[in-house]
Amino acid sequence: MKTEKSKKPISRKLILEELSKIKVSDIMIPRSKVVLIDKNNNFMDIVETVINDGHSRFPVFSEKIDNIVGFLYAKDLLQFFRKIEVDFDITKILRKPLFVPENKKANELLALFRKEHVHIAIVVDEYGTMVGIISLEDILEEIVGDISDEYDREKKQSYRSIGKNEYILHPGMLLEEFNKIFKTEITSINYETIGGFILERFGYVPQQGESFKLDNLYFEIKKVEGSRIKEILLKKT
After folding, report:
1. Tens digits of per-residue pLDDT, 159-211?
2. Which of 27, 112, 154, 234 is close enough to 167 for a disulfide, judged by CB 3.0 to 4.6 Å?
3. What's residue 80's pLDDT?
4. For residue range 136-167, what is the model confidence (pLDDT) as tens digits?
5. 58 within a domain of the structure (yes/no)
6. pLDDT tens per residue, range 105-115
7. Domain count of the chain?
8. Residue 224 phi/psi, 5° resolution?
């Protein structure tokens, strides 16, 4: 790895210190923007909601909105498309919801996500009322910049070509998309984006010019602003 001698890497400790200043309520998706699903809806109604809204994860409620009983992952519906509709029971595929208080610190939630092996939670106020949802991506945006997810209104360009086998990557590019486009099999236990993967690889926020090679892929940090990675150079050799 190479780095500019005039700059020191931003440590994991510093990142956590910065996140400790941020409350969950500051970066959550507010309730007004969250699409919820009624547990009693039939299969086709749920499918229609998923298709029309384009989200990948939905809070599911029973009887009243504040009674969240789980998260529905859109991909879990696929198994029912070849079965008779009467076989569908949403309770069998719901993911257990994680509830967090709105005043919880972002660094604490990050640790909780890792401990519970989940990437999304319901945010509640002091009365237990749902006020929003928060995902791992929302926290990562505070480190690596904006990440394109299902709640973003505008689609952000995740990469661009700058030459033969050379690309500039947005740190919010999902690993799933990266693997599909560049025909790789990069995985991460804790992160879903290329920016998160790079943070995991370095163990700190790298500075401009730092690099590493993985098989036939060369990654170099092209642009950094403060504690955020803004651009990543990728070369395929």
Report:
1. 999 999 999 999 888 898 999 999 999 988 667 789 888 887 887 778 889 99
2. 234
3. 80
4. 888 877 766 555 554 554 445 789 999 999 99
5. no
6. 998 998 899 88
7. 1
8. -135, 140
Three-class HEC string of the chain: CCCCCCCCCECHHHHHHHHCCCEHHHHCEEHHHCCCEECCCCHHHHHHHHHHHCCCEEEEEECEEEEEEEEEEHHHHHHHCCCCHHHCCHHHCCECCCEEECCCEHHHHHHHHHHHCCCEEEEECCCCCEEEEEEHHHHHHHHHCCCCCCCCCCCCCCEEEEECCEEEECCCCEHHHHHHHHCCCCCCCCCCEHHHHHHHHHCCECCCCCEEEECCEEEEEEEEECCEEEEEEEEEC
Residue 212 belongs to domain spanning = 149-236
- For residue 222, what is the domain's CATH number? 3.30.465.10
- Mean pLDDT of all residues belonging to the chain: 83
Residue 107 in domain: no
Residue 153: count other Cβ atoms within 10 Å of its Cβ.
5
